[in-house]
TrEMBL record:
Residue intervals of the Bacterial bifunctional deaminase-reductase C-terminal domain: 13-193
UniProt source species: Pseudarthrobacter defluvii
Pfam families xref list: RibD_C
This protein's name: Dihydrofolate reductase
Signal peptide limits: none
Transmembrane segments: none
Length: 211
């Protein structure tokens, strides 16, 4: 009925996304994470940085997040103190950027450029088992890694907004069918919902006799 989840390895891979209730990654004109990132959620983000992830991202996300991190470091933005700390802290985290348009060396500290096939590169990273991996935004990269069967955990933080008029970057367009088995859930600041799953990519709906 479906492909098996990613095999356990010394380098587990997590797809980590923030999302509106109607499935968008961002919305035109809304501040930050829809203006709803509270202190409990931001404190959790800081704690997560202690898990020694290597972040995987594409060129568009690199440009966006590097720009935000630089603005926060220079105090040239409207970020709160907690937001600024989370963004500037990303400079110290190892990052691998998959791009054919960027050039090395990258300006953002601790960023390594990878110009080859991302799926092959991540498969090798997992095989080498150098430490936990996590995507950072990068919707198309996350989709490719899931389809390839490389994802061990699929984590969403759902913000309580519907952005039917202003939503941008539909997250699940182009996805295969995926069964999700929940392994963790949590509420932040009384309104944000964390949902973490083990994903299984399906080749057909359950019970239809599809191979």
């Amino acid at each position: 009925m479906g492909a098996t989840p990613a095999e356990p390895s010394q380098a587990p891979l997590m797809v980590d996304l923030i999302i509106s209730l109607d499935g968008y990654a961002s919305a035109e004109g809304w501040p930050g994470w829809w203006g709803l990132e509270g202190p409990e959620y931001l404190a959790w983000l800081d704690q997560e940085s202690a898990n020694n992830y290597t972040f995987l991202l594409g060129a568009n996300t690199y440009r966006l997040m590097y720009g935000m991190s630089a603005q926060a470091a220079a105090n040239r933005s409207g970020f709160s103190e907690e937001e600024g700390a989370s963004l500037t802290g990303l400079s110290a985290v190892p990052k691998i950027v998959f791009s054919s348009s960027l050039q090395s060396p990258l300006d953002w500290p601790n960023s390594t450029l990878a110009t080859g096939d991302a799926v092959d590169a991540v498969r090798e990273l997992k095989r080498r088992g150098t430490g936990p991996l996590s995507t950072l935004g990068s919707i198309s990269l996350a989709r490719s890694l899931l389809v390839a069967g490389l994802v061990d955990r699929f984590r969403l933080v759902v913000f309580p907004v519907i952005t039917g008029a202003t939503g941008r970057e539909r997250i699940f367009d182009g996805y295969p069918d995926v069964r999700l088995d929940m392994v963790q859930s949590r509420t932040f600041d009384g309104r944000l919902q964390l949902l973490e799953y083990v994903p299984t990519v399906l080749t057909g709906p359950p019970g239809t006799g599809q191979p």
